[in-house]
Input
Amino acid sequence: MWVICLQSERFSLRTAVYSVVKPAVVHRIMANGTGNSSMPQMSAGLLMYRKSGSGLEVFLVHPGGPFWARKDKGAWSIPKGIIAEGEDKLEAAKREFAEETSISPSEPYIYLGEVRQKSGKDVYAWAFERNDDPPQIKSNTFTIEWPPRSGRMHEFPEIDQGKFFPLPEAHQKINQSQEEFLNRLARKS
Output
């Protein structure tokens, strides 16, 4: 579980709702007091896929919490998270996938490269194949004050849904900046 406690006037609830603060980020916030870093933020993730009679299907996750509750198109993502300082990118991707989905990823991994999201964050991704239905996901959680300024802390799953989508539908669901990972997987598989 990740607890978001932002008591500085430099942070807003919007910052807390948009992102789940993890230890690498908390360390950076405490080190310089702003959460900004001279280094660009980097994430790594895994795109699980399977081949079916109708073609390629990819596993995407929907973020949990009140901000994302009513969002669908463009809100889904590959399971990913912050790369800790000094951590190997693929190892970070495997760790984040397991934390967010409770599914153990397996080799071989296909490197899909990196994309830069609108936020400026670089995301590195790999794909792996899994042909059976995944178990129900059990995500890690985060805690925020909700509703804003209520003084009440609520716990939410980092990921509230995860499922396979046929590639054409996945293009509609995924965060626009991550769509390139779908194109690269289609070319490589």
